[in-house]
Amino acid sequence: MSDPDNGGGGGGRCQVKVKASMSPRRRRSHYSSSSLTLNHVLPRAFFLLVGIFCAHSKGQPNFQDTMQSPVAVIQGENAPLTCVVRELGEASVVWKKWENGKSGPKILTAGEVRVTSDERVRIIHDQGGDVWVLAIRDALPSDSGLYICEVNTNPVLRSFHNLTVISLEVAPPKHFNETLTFTIPPPGEDFPFQEFSESYKGQGSIGSHNYTSCCVSQNVSRSCLGFCTLQSILDGSTGEPSQCENEFPRIVKCMADGRDHVPCCVREGVPDICQDLCRGEYTIVTDNVKTHFSCPTFIERTLACIADGVEILSSEPVNLVAQAISQSSINASWLAPAKNGDTVTEYVVNVTTLRSYDPPYTGLGYGPDSSSSISGSSSPNVSITTSVSTTTSTSSVSINHRGSHGIDISSEEKVEAFMRQIKVHGDLTNVLITQLQPFTMYEISVIAFNIHGRSLPSNRVRTLTLAPGIVRPNSTTPPTLPDIQTCCIQSGVNSETCVAKLCDPRKTTTLEIPDLMICAPWTPQVFKCLADGKDHTPCCRERGVPSPCSDLCSGNVTKLDYHYFKCLRYMSEYSNCLMDGYGVLPSAPRQVRVSNVNEDFVFIHWSPPAVLVETVTGYNIHYRPLGTFENLYTHIKNVHSPYILENLYANAEYEVYVEAVNDHGVSEASQRVVFRTASQNEKNAELEANSNLYNETACCVSAGLSPTCMPLCSYEASMSDIRTLAFACASEFHTILRCAAGGRDHSTCCAKRGVTESCIDVCSAKVPDSLKFVAENCLPFIGNIVQCFDSGTEIIPPAVEEFHAFLVTDSSVGVAWDPPVGYNVTQYQVFYQYQNPASSLSKPSDLKSVNVTDTSTEITGLDKDSMYKFYVVAVNEHGSSVPSSMVQLKVSSTAFDGSKIPGIVSAPHGLVVAGHGATWVQIVWQPPAIAHPTDKITYKVYHRGVKESEYQTNESSVNSVTLDGLKPNSQYILYVTARSNDDKGESQASETLIAWTDPAHSPFVEPPRIQPLNLLIEGRSMTVVCVALGDPTPSISLYINGKLMKTQKNRHLTQVVENITRDMDIVSCYADNGYGTPMQAARRIQVAHLPSISGSDVTYASLGDSASIECSVVAFPEPKVAFWRSSLERIPIVNGGNFRIEHVDDAPLPLLDQPHKSKYVLKIMNVSEESIGNYSCHAENAIGEMSKTFIVKTRDLQDSSMNITECCVREKVSEGCMDACSFFSDIESILDKPQCLPDFDKLMKCSADGRDHRACCANWGVPRRCLDLCRGEPVSLNPDLCILQNSKQIFSCFKENRDKLPGPPQNVKVEVISDTEVKVSWEFPTINPNTATVYRVFWRPIGQKLSERQDTQTTSLRIANLKPGHHYETVIKAGNNRGTSILTEPVGFTTENNFIASASTAGGSNVALGFGIAFLVCLVLGAAVASVWFIRNRQFGLKPPGAIAFENPSYIRETNPDIHMNGDGPSNGSVPSVSNGVTANGWHTETLHPPRPETEVPPTLYEELRLGSEGVGFRRLKN
């Protein structure tokens, strides 16, 4: 067979041979040793110790041809064990021997090399061959055992070989060399056990125990039937255990086969905690820690007992039926066991008097009290064994429960519980149990015995003895109903209605209060007739009719009053009792039993009643769960046998009974059958009551356990809590363990319950040096250990209190202590030991002890001036405590001052360096071995450099500490002391430890790791990981676009960035540890996003002219862009005819703020009526799509020159140059007139018409020094040259933007709302009002240089946070994505007295001058900042994509102060907050009309002053 965990074995059909054996004990060694190989899988359930089917993969090492038959040799012979390994390849073969009770398998050979020191062992192997023979020369009986051939593949392959060396003192068994050979079938085929019908009777042949038929009857799934033979379990051919765990309770029950194997398991040394399989039970593993115990050492013995028991023991009796014969007797009958029934020598009938009664019964007891007994019949084949009476105190039992009839039952009763055993000869299968109490519930079960042992108990049944006055009818012919109506008429009832309703027993269930009131005069006669001369009171009481209604049942009603009205609820029971008294009801159903018990359903069977069976029309079933809060019965009516009860709880105990129904009513209840549904692998709903006096949780509170770890400080802790809190509470494990042990030594219990030797110390609260060792080796036994803790704290004495020394002489020491309270301590053991001052370790041989019964003693014969330590433990018959404290002193009368020397905790020990760095060292130690469980222990760590003289101290409440702030590459000396919370003194120092710190290393940081790197989508999240090295541990900072996102001192930083945006570009990781040069690494990212489209909504064109629709698209990945003729019809537009589609490069350099922006232009040539209408620009990429509708309208052909001409007249343009005051004039002809050059500034002002055309002019190539002409302002440098070279371009922009730019807002007004807030409002521009999409409002105190601004889409704005009593001025301009208007004239206002003033000419000049100077300063500063920003971005742009790294970037250490606000400004009524002269939602860049860097106009001081005199200081756009 192969290791179940590691998938060894052969392919196809695996040949297995089993030696026949004469001795059960010797035979057991052959197969039970093999079962040891399965023990390491999961505890408790042997099914989880099973391997997988024999299998192998071609080309992989396998044991296909390995014969694993047991080998037996005579002492002194050579013992060969053969292992055949096919396809070994580069793997190695290792031979091991399993060592029971030790640390595990012992390695004998590795390859062809002998590892063991035993020279008798050698390997026989041909180079390149497949056979590896382990040869043992001159075999000894001690060589017997299990040997493992192991191949170090992944997973590891193992085959197991059992060797038996027969001592010369033992004769070889007969037929020893006979071998039985059989073949393990593949999955899905039946095992041919019929070939081995010749089994060894009474010797437990494995092949003979095939319980597959039982598993099938218990609905075990086909895939789990491999567990239904012991042979397949041992061979590892069972299937996957984890898939069958829910079916193990049924499988285990079938495996036990109704036999009680516990006596055998006890003889074999199986502890009680591991005996569930011996009883045919499977203890479900729940989340409770006490169910996670391990019994691997005893699986072999358990299987051996089962294999023996199924051959020699009888199965359980079946079909137990108990029927009450009278008020004091019950007849019990059963069928003989189905297996080995002929070997039964006697039966033992267990009869238990139940202490509680079940609804609808009242629980009234009758008959004798505790002196009553149960006796058998007078037959000599029946005898009474020792009567075991439970010593139940005579207490008042209060039952308050609403039964099936709706009655509130409350009674005080004195009922004692008894358990009697009646022995019945093996030839009999029935017994009459007499001298019982009337109307009392009994539970009955039967056990079969033979000369080898006993069976398991039969199914339990419950039945109720008859109440006094009830006689069970025997008639089989239904009598006729008495003529109650004639009786009523003869008795004087002269109301036809009353005779019809009350005098018909079949209609009593329909009675109502008015019927009783109407017929009240004749009620004595009516109920007397209904009783028909019989007293039906016992039946009424049995069926739950309350006592006030008993007069109706006896017929003794003298007067009907309102008290009888409540009896109407019980008319159904009353009617059934009448019918039962008339003899027309059937008797109770018989032989109620259950089968096919599953997790949530069961089959109920019963036999028809013995009386009036021919009248039965159906049956009623009543069932309920026991031991839960659900005490009510569930009722199922009008069913027949068999019936399936469904929707039951798993692993729950139920009680069920059946009633027969005919046309007249319902019979009495049948016997009650109790059954338990199958288990599921889930937590048991029933919690065990914690009856021990010791409170482990209170101990943890006293010991200072953190609240987080409190769930672990309980014997009812859950495994889920252990898994969840294991890491967080590892440092407090010692405190939890001390309180769990409770100051007791549970080693003896743990040893009995199978805890391995390496984990025994845990049972006395001693922890090995490594918690990892505890987790790996002792966790499988956690249930064993916790159960020992739980039971041991009830019987083992705890640690003594207040241990101290009260006397010290030159040769003796007197010690005393307080005894444990509430425990029977038989003696105390006082230990003392000489302490060598030159060594912190004492030899075990120096430890001495004395036993005393008092709580004080004097230890004599000590050496003067020597150091000794003392401690004491309490002992009783169950075990001993652990020491609670120790006294350490010098034996000298001169050193003793007469005061009490208290006991203290022992010194910490086992100091180790758990971790270290350049500036820190982590120290871990073991807590004091001697301490009281409730001691709250604190530690003091002393440390100093080797060149320092003074120690520094650190305190800790756990057994570890990290010393920070140390010098790199330095040596330190450390030791630890302990102190308990009672502050009786500091312990001795632990051993001294010398530790080194590491050298310091400069930080190194890797480029950020971003997931998903290639699929970053706007609105989603990305995960950024920064990894840095360095010693000390560096602080890592994460920046995105220069903005600090997170800082963490660690070697790695992980941050999930939610809702990423398209403007995220550079992700940087920065590391600094204070040593060397900090380092930064960055990575450029690109965020994919939906296309966004912008452009002028309306385009005006004259018929016959051309029109251009500009569609600006921002998208990544690059989108596909198309134009449609209609947004609804989506008629595509292609190049050709009157349409031209161009992809325009918007700038020589890509825009840094929008790197994925592109412009597409649809040009419509020769605009006609058909060209007018809606057009759509559609952009689509992998992320999504977006469309925007543009409208082309015809331009009103009215003569616009009139307004311009008026402006020219107003500006006093000379008459000879007035021809230029029209868009339709010949500009070149005007330029030919030199006399017109002085008026050209005036012409430009009028032609600009209050709008700013600089962006268009820049696109047409107008130099920067000439751009002011585009907004109607003069230029100061070479104006004539600007005019001559650029007039055509400028006038083309005037014409192009004639319908696209708005004019300035009109009628600006200011309304003072309070001394700190005003409302500014205005009207739409008169020029192109429909093109104005946003308005920008500027304001400032008069005389200041800095102004504040706010954007809005409405025609009003509230300005708040103004200073009271100050004079302000405001200007406004309108704009869209193509540009802006000029500013309005300044409007002044004062924030008190509601004063508002329009700017005068003089005032306007001063104000404009101030605004101009302020704007000049801001523009210079802005230009400087923009230059730095542009240079940096150019550097990034020159670097290749991907990861870039550079050291010590100074800028990245600061948080980016910019505040970016997306979306439009606040609407009307919003109040922006203002800080440092810039609104909190101010624009980072001007979006109304963003000039490009190459088109920005650097203003001169003269120009700024000159423009400011006209109030145009606001006009230059600030970037």
Key structural traits:
1519 residues; ten-stranded antiparallel β-sheet; six-stranded mixed β-sheet; 26 helices; disordered N terminus; disordered C terminus
Low-confidence sequence ranges: 1-58, 170-206, 357-381, 384-417, 681-692, 1147-1153, 1397-1421, 1423-1519
Radius of gyration: 51 Å
Provide a count of the helices.
26
Shape: extended
- Determine the structural class based on helices, strands and strand pairing: alpha+beta
- Structure summary, number of beta strands: 74
Distance between the termini: 83 Å
Largest sheet: 10 strands, antiparallel
What's the mean pLDDT score?
75
Q: What fraction, in percent, of the residue positions are helical?
A: 10-25%
In percent terms, what proportion of residues is strand?
25-35%
